[in-house]
Amino acid sequence: MVNIPGRSKGCLTCRRRKVKCDEGKPTCQRCHKGNHDCQGYPHPLRVVFDRSCAEVPPGKEGEASSSKAAERTNESNRLAVSRSVSRSLSRTPSNEEVVDVQRELASRPFLREPGLSPLRDDIYSSFLVKNLLVHLDIGQDAILSAFEKRSPTTDDSVQALAMAFYGRLHRQDEICQQGAVWYGKALRKLSRDLTDPNHVWSTSIVLSTATLAMYEFVTSTRMTPWIQHAGGVGRLIEARGPWRHQSPEELRLFKAVRPMIAARATNHGTRCFLEELDWRTIPWNLDPSQKASHDHLTDFACALPGLLEDRKYLKIARLADFATSTSAAKLKAFKITSFAVPPSTADRERAPRTRQEYQSLVTALEGRVSESARALQDWKNTWDESSPAYSAVGLVPSQPLSYDLPIDLFGPALHFPDLQHANTYTLYNMILFHLLGISIEIRYGWLSPNAFSSTTSSTLPTAYVSPSQSADIPADLALKRRETAIEICRAVPYHLWFEKHGSAGAYLLMWPLISALQLFIPPWTETPAPEAQWIKGVLRHIAERWGLGSMFLAEEE
């Protein structure tokens, strides 16, 4: 209402400055853009009383048998809470005080509203939705609707993620710690659900596990916890089978978790079950037209881990050969940078042992990579014809940033019609980057068919040498791979500069950006290239500003 004293809905800072507030929650964008400390909003709580479940203060147990005494007790509780709320509203509260009061009142049984969705219960979940989930390229159709069929485990998982996300972004350790408590509750409930035959096939178990994986992505400084949860999501989906993902609800959830499963498999260099034909077709059988262009691109991402697994076997065999004529120091450095995850005993047993086995695997891998590259180009041609164009522009951020795009390294930034388009473009370049890398290694690099047990095994692997220093790699092929990494970097400003994307731009950018970083960190170069230093700066900014991906920084240290 306007022109009525005391009825303004603006934040306390805008009201004091006497300017119009955009009423953004939990803090308004006008304060953020003007570098003002947004003090939040007048206390929005409305006390709802449910006498049937009101708390009885200590020392009143003996009066509980009397209905009049119980009624007086309830009334006493109500007045106590009312006075507490009144005191908090009699002056301008700080953000921390608002959070404390909300938490205190929410903990009282007679103030809860069980009918609310877990994504609207409190400031933390609302913040999670507004700043991450609603902006993801797969959007509400894939994620938010999956929460409609809630379960106690899902509720706790969402609460853990929401509090961790809010606490990290606002640097409030207490809230992060409370999120960890909810995380523990969710894990215990999930463990029970997995042994319950009535729940083991439910979508809520998959959703809870995926939510806990996102929690680790926000909080963990090590890769292992995230890998374990993401692996759990993959095992649950695989055990359910492709036929259990055909209904609209199940298909939305399946589409939402596919990138997570593929990213985990790519990091591990382990073949992913999602590359199989049944998993690429059966979930869409009821309505094949529902498989969008981005879904087809994700098929390529799901096939990528299998190609990387075969390359891993070639590397294992080649390293054994390489060790016979290379210094221990160089070999150790190369081992560390060649595998994101150290090869297992099973990996070593699957690796080729003879020259014939090696050449056979190289030939098969080269054929699969070439076929994937042709199919990916066909997809790109179709996508270009049906999608709005992107353009190179001189984007200028609203305030100076530590990760401004260096024009001399990357050229002008890219602008896209929307975040989904930007995500599709970076995912395409990431897939092409890996395909070109494998192709270079097996055609011209140290994994070529004639390299095994050859007299050239002591030379540096040319696939890891700067394209300008390698005489073996065709210039156009090396340049094309470099261009894919550059294109990913040129998309960074669009993902991160626009507040309307929330944290989703940063979240969607992590996988492609980590891939591009590989090109600019050769194993025997002590000083990273300027491009690598810039990418690491972006990763640090994402961790500090958006609270995401600290695990990647720890891996690089």
Automatic annotation (TrEMBL):
This is Zn(2)-C6 fungal-type domain-containing protein. Residues 58-95 are annotated as: Disordered. Residues 58-75 have a biased composition (Basic and acidic residues). Residues 10-38 form the Zn(2)-C6 fungal-type domain. CDD domains: GAL4. InterPro entries: Osmoadaptation_assoc, Zn2-C6_fun-type_DNA-bd_sf, Zn2Cys6_DnaBD. The lineage of its organism: Eukaryota, Fungi, Dikarya, Ascomycota, Pezizomycotina. GO terms for molecular function: DNA-binding transcription factor activity, RNA polymerase II-specific; zinc ion binding.
